[in-house]
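Please decode residue identities from the backbone states below.
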């Protein structure tokens, strides 16, 4: 396990770039203007509020700059080919790197092989940017379909933590974030976080860097009424029809939800 003493504020962070897939793009978290937010956007605001760069301000968050290169549906090799070179070119103070999840959930994938490719990308990034924060997988014990892949996800998560040790990377450990085990942390598709789920991840990311946060990401959810068996079954049938079947169909056709989607924030810009 990575030494927690490493997960402290590492000087002033004046620029941040996020790379990854739908999780980092922010799917499941629509803002009031209809555009995606997500944990990385929310994390950027926390960074900008508390780590303003001295100098002439460029808006309400000073001259902090943020890029989000993530695109939904991207596999690890696509992220390495499309996003890692851009992140190296931007050379921000901080990069968050979450990738491999879409590879792991594919039939026949090998978490050891995915981890080897992930490590090569981490080694590449650490040569060009200030700090690389890596992200583990979620504990999927309560997630329909994905709970059957829990062993593979756990293996990959162990690899990510080992890689973080070798390259001195702070770790955004989602496996241990108990609050996202609640179904209210997830969108209706059960594959992406809800706005509250994204918020909790952003708070945890800020904690990893030693920032003071306005709320505990692992705070208890308000109590709710127990759901009956028929209600749960009805919800499961609706979910399978509306989300699972289309998802399987795209996989069979070799399609991705990210086809023809571009990064929402390809440049380091002020918030």
């Amino acid at each position: 396990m990575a030494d927690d003493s490493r997960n402290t504020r590492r000087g002033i962070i004046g620029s941040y770039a996020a790379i990854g897939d739908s999780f980092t793009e922010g799917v499941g978290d629509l803002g009031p203007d209809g555009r995606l937010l997500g944990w990385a956007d929310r994390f950027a605001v926390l960074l900008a509020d508390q780590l303003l760069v001295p100098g002439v301000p460029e808006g309400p968050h000073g001259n902090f700059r943020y890029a989000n290169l993530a695109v939904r549906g991207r596999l690890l090799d696509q992220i390495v080919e499309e996003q890692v070179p851009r992140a190296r070119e931007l050379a921000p103070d901080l990069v968050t790197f979450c990738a491999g999840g879409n590879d792991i959930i594919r039939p026949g994938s090998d978490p050891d092989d995915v981890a080897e490719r992930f490590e090569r990308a981490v080694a590449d990034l650490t040569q060009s940017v200030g700090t690389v924060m890596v992200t583990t997988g979620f504990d999927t014990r309560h997630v329909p379909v994905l709970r059957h892949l829990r062993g593979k996800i756990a293996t990959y998560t162990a690899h990510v933590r080992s890689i973080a040790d070798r390259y001195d990377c702070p770790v955004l450990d989602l496996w241990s974030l108990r609050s996202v085990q609640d179904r209210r942390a997830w969108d209706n598709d059960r594959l992406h976080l809800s706005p509250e789920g994204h918020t909790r991840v952003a708070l945890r990311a800020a904690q990893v860097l030693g920032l003071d946060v306005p709320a505990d990401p692992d705070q208890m959810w308000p109590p709710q009424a127990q759901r009956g068996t028929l209600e749960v079954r009805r919800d499961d049938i609706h979910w399978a029809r509306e989300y699972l079947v289309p998802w399987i169909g795209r996989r069979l056709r070799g399609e991705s939800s990210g086809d023809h989607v571009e990064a929402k924030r390809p440049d380091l810009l002020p918030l």
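Observation: The longest strand covers residues 265-270.
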